[in-house]
Amino acid sequence: ITLKRLKSNAINFIMGYNAVSVAIENNCEAPRMLKAFRKCGNTVPTLELEDFISQKSRYMRACMDAGVPMAPTIFAPKGKRSPASLLHQITQRGWKHFVMKQSESGFSLGFVKLSVESCQRDPSILKTYFKDYASCPEYVVQEAIDGFTRNWETRCFWYNGEFLYAIANMAAVSVSDGAERIITGDDIPKEFLENAKRIGREAIKALPPLKAPTGQTVPMVLVRTDIGCSDSPIYDRNT
């Protein structure tokens, strides 16, 4: 990946290899490649947008400020967290189960689901997590909403605003046997597919336009919307 190569294309779709991929590899080429992504001016999404969404708390706070419903959440930044204080916050809010993940990672890296009861009984559970991921800039901690694990998360792919195809999955970290499930085509229950298309069609209308090297703006070309569904109660006292 070089700046010259990126600029030779009208638009670079970096969904398969982007700044997150570079950060995970974290090798000697990382600074050069990030600089190329930042300077080429024709990536989809833009580096500004990728920076915005790569730190979960940044876009989550923006959604909260805009009135978008969000699962009960605690942000635990490095230097301002401890196992005891986090568990205290969780119990004060009445949660029974919770999930933790790293703010700047994907692919379920650092994801764990825990019960409040088990952490109270064995403090080493949280202490071990804090030790293993001590360098992480921020943890995102949310009340576990079990309804999401019983329903398909449906991912719709859109091209120029038109629906192309969908896949539906249940992540390995969310099911009891730890086996990821993926289906597509006619195997996706119609109720999940049609609702995912309905919500996704409205969501893509809110996306910013793309900018071509000539300075022209064009509508967002390639988009994926992920739609989940919950049917379980929330115990958070602040919700």
UniProtKB/TrEMBL annotation:
<protein>
    <recommendedName>
        <fullName>ATP-grasp domain-containing protein</fullName>
    </recommendedName>
</protein>
